Amino acid sequence: FLSSGFQVAPETKAVMKWLRSIPFVLSASLHGGELVVTYPYDYSRHPMEEKMFSPTPDEKMFKMLAKAYADAHPVISDRSELRCGGNFVKRGGIINGAEWYSFTGGMADFNYLHTNCFEVTVEVGCEKFPLEEELFTIWHENRDALLNYMEMVHRGIKGIVSDKFGNPIKNARISVRGIRHDVTTGN
C-alpha cells in the first residue's frame, strides 16, 4: 500500500498515525461528485484492470454497512434512475470501490489493511463543490443515514481478551473461521 512510490503528505501521515494509535472500528469518508456508497477494496487486484470487482474477505459486512447508509438516505434509496446517482439504483445505491473505478492510496483500503477500522466512502451529492446554500439540504439528506451507519458499530462480536488474572491483553490476534482477515485487540 505505502510502497507504491508516491509521496505521502504530512497530514495523511498524521491521520495514519492517529488511526494506528486509537482502536477505531468504523468510519466513513464523505466526498462529493456522485450519490452512492462505496466500500473496499478501492484498488483492483489487477492494477491494469479498471472497474474490476475486488472484494475483501469481509465483503458481506462491508455490503451490510454500505446498505445501512444507503437505505436510510432519502435520495440514494429513491428508485428513480433519472436522478443524480440513478445509475446505482439497480445496485441498491452501493458499489465495490474498485468496480466503480480503481485507485491506489485510499483511506478505506488503508484502514482495512492496517487497522481494525472498517470504512466506507459516501458520495453525498452530485455536486463536487456544492454552493453554501446547498449545504443545509445535503446535511438533512445525510443526517439520518449517518446516524444509522454509526449505529452499526454495535454489530458483530465484542468483548475483552484477558489473561487468567483478568488483565486485558494488548495486540491479541483474533481470527474468525472462514474470514481471512484478522483483527487485534486495542490497549
Automatic annotation (TrEMBL):
GO terms for cellular component: extracellular space. InterPro entries: CarboxyPept-like_regulatory, CARBOXYPEPT_ZN_2, Peptidase_M14, Peptidase_M14_domain. Residues 1-153 form the Peptidase M14 domain. It comes from the Eukaryota. GO terms for biological process: peptide metabolic process; protein processing. Pfam families: Peptidase_M14. GO terms for molecular function: metallocarboxypeptidase activity; zinc ion binding. Keywords: Carboxypeptidase, Glycoprotein, Hydrolase, Metal-binding, Metalloprotease, Protease, Zinc. Its cofactor is Zn(2+). The active site is at 123 (proton donor/acceptor). Gene3D superfamilies: Carboxypeptidase-like, regulatory domain (2.60.40.1120), Zn peptidases (3.40.630.10). Belongs to the peptidase M14 family. This is CBPZ Carboxypeptidase. It comes from Eurystomus gularis.
